């Protein structure tokens, strides 16, 4: 079945450091890929998405490229801020009723 | 913000009691979902609905039932709560995209349930 694997956290960075959170997936067909972010005490918000191979999703300085050859969708940001501290979830949807399959989440803590 | 609310936001109950969580939307979206969030597991789908009275099971449906008698409300019921159902429950909604691959879901604020 479909699955998503993320790098384990927590990840602790200093402000302005470069961020990479790895995400790989297993899926049949051509899934859509997503990154969601959850700030403390809140629900999930869509951060960015990519719906086909080689698409690059981007938002708020974050980027991720849909790599079908390596089945990956790594999240990157060139310079993180304290306000980026949150839990980040990679997810895929195989168009089966729009159901999302999530990775386990990666907690990011950014220190001033 | 998508018009989606959950009630209650927090609940403490005892093992063996029935519990119902409510998800309410004002967006008239066709699809609604219930997930649970547990450390180390991310979010896992419990049940979902693709229309009024149309529901289906997710990957962790045992011990849960759902009902959707009108578009705006999706209820999750734990018939006899157990400690293993202590979790944070999220509702999500999604509109119908007409054959496209674009499946953005909008999430509610969550309900924290503790079963003693």
Short description:
The complex is a heterodimer of chains A (112) and B (116). By secondary structure, chain A is an all-beta fold.
Write structural notes for this entry.
The complex is a heterodimer of chains A (112) and B (116). In chain A, 0% of the residues lie in helices and 51% in strands. Chain A has strands at residues 3-6, 11-14, 19-21, 23-26, 32-38, 44-50, 56-59, 62-65, 75-77, 86-93, 100-102, 106-111. In chain A, the strands form 3 sheets. In chain A, strands 2, 5, 6, 10, 11 and 12 form a 6-stranded mixed beta sheet that branches. Chain A has a 4-stranded antiparallel beta sheet with strand order 3-9-8-7, with no helix packed on it. Chain A has a two-stranded antiparallel ribbon with strand order 1-4. The radius of gyration of chain A is 13 Å and the shape is globular. Chain B has strands at residues 4-7, 10-13, 19-25, 31-38, 42-51, 54-57, 64-70, 73-78, 87-94, 106-107, 111-115. In chain B, strands 2, 4, 5, 6, 9, 10 and 11 form a 7-stranded mixed beta sheet that branches. The mean pLDDT of chain B is 91. The interface between A and B is medium-sized, with 25 and 27 residues.
Cα-based radius of gyration of chain B, to the nearest Å: 14 Å
The multimeric state of the shown protein is heterodimer
| Percent helix of chain B | under 10%
Tally of helical runs of chain A: 0
The tally of beta strands of chain B, per DSSP, is: 11
**Main beta sheet of chain B: strand number and arrangement?**
7 strands, mixed
Strand content of chain B: over 45%
The main β sheet of chain A shows up as: 6 strands, mixed
Helix amount of chain A, in percent? Answer: under 10%
C-alpha termini separation of chain B: 34 Å
Question: Are there runs of chain B of 5+ residues with pLDDT below 50, and where?
Answer: none
* Rounded average pLDDT of chain B: 91
Nearest-angstrom radius of gyration of chain A? 13 Å
End-to-end Cα distance of chain A:
41 Å
Helix and strand string of chain B, N-terminal first?
EEEEEEEEEEE
Question: Strand pairing plus helix content of chain A: what structural class?
Answer: mainly beta
